[in-house]
Amino acid sequence: MKRLRANIFPTIIALSALSVSASAAFYSVSGLSKLFAGATFEVIIMAGSLEVAKLVIASLLYQYWNTINKLLRTYLTIAAIILVLITSMGIYGFLSAAYQETYQKLVVNENQIEFLENKSKFYEDDVLRYDAELERISGNISTLSNAKATSIQVRDTSAVGGLRSTVSTAELRLAQQRIGVEEENRKEVNAKRTVAADSLQSIQLKILALQNNSDTVGELGPLQYLSGLTGTPMDKIINWLLLVIIFVFDPLAISLVIAANFAFAQANQKNLYGEYEDDLYDDDDDDPWEDEQEETYPDVKDIEVNAEEIDANDFIVVDEEEVPHPQRILQKGPSQHRVLYSDGSERKVDKNDDIIRYL
Question: Which of 125, 219, 233, 291 has its CA 20 to 30 A from that of 276?
């Protein structure tokens, strides 16, 4: 259980590293396969193997940095950097292709809206023209409706003075005829206006539906808002966003892999005898050696030692100034180990030193 508890957090780090690395590998492989569409399957195999190799190189360099051949170490470092750049290029290609696909939908949507707006303007002008025509016809009808019969004098020899007063209805009949014509014109214009108004309303509804299209508004709405807020073209905003993502994505995966190696090394430190450091008994615990001796020789503790029989002159001091000597390894590292000396001090010793070999 102690070993399990000690490895919980390193395992979480390792799982996080694998998830980020797997995501980066997926986007990178997908992006590279789109760049070389003529050999998609082959590119997927190549890019996948390179992604795995990149993680292995990161772990290898961390664990054997001071022991690996310098030329090989330099080459692997350069290779890891180049692989990070290749992965970043693949991620950039994948995300930019996804953006371009959505942006093309937006362009088509905007073109449709522009076409419908031009068509809407045409019908709107028609409606205004028909309204003006109807107003003119209504004015004419109102004027003609005010026409009345007029009194006139006609020559009549039988009348006194040779003139006779009468009423002329010719103008009234003419006005009534004109009113009938204007009424027919008003019906015709009103029918045309109704058709134009219905067409205008239908087009405006289509424009509203396109403007509220959930596919493009939901995906590019925030970018459009930022573009309008900052006055920066949307292409520049998405380019900055993609650069931020690729500069964080793959370097984070490499860092988490190295952190997982470090965490597991710290959680599983061993001493000279291959024992885990946190498995050793504390100073306050009973010594297992004493327990074993008591079980084997139960009467040993009953032996009484006569202090008078022990004479200090029986001991010969070889060297009053004792030289500290290494006792055990406290912590193992990639190139150096931390060693405990007899005087209680701790020192770092190269792992290939003879002191380490003979411990």
Answer: 291
State whether 298 and 213 are in the same domain.
Answer: no
Is residue 78 scored above 90 in pLDDT?
Answer: yes
Q: Which tens digit of pLDDT belongs to each residue from 254-292?
A: 888 888 888 887 777 665 555 555 554 444 445 554 555
Q: Is the dihedral of CA 53, 57, 59, 63 positive or negative?
A: positive
Residue holding tokens 């590293």? 17
Residues 138 and 221 in one domain: yes
Q: What are phi and psi of 184, to 5 degrees?
A: -65, -40
**Token pair of 109 as six digits:** 């949507």
Closest by alpha carbon to 273, among 325, 332, 323, 324?
332
- With vertex at residue 233, the alpha carbon angle to CA 227 and CA 235, rounded to the nearest 5 degrees, is 110
User: What whole-number distance in Å separates Cα of residue 182 and Cα of residue 177?
Assistant: 9
Give the Cα separation of 40 and 29 in Å (integer): 10
Q: Are 297 and 250 in the same domain?
A: no
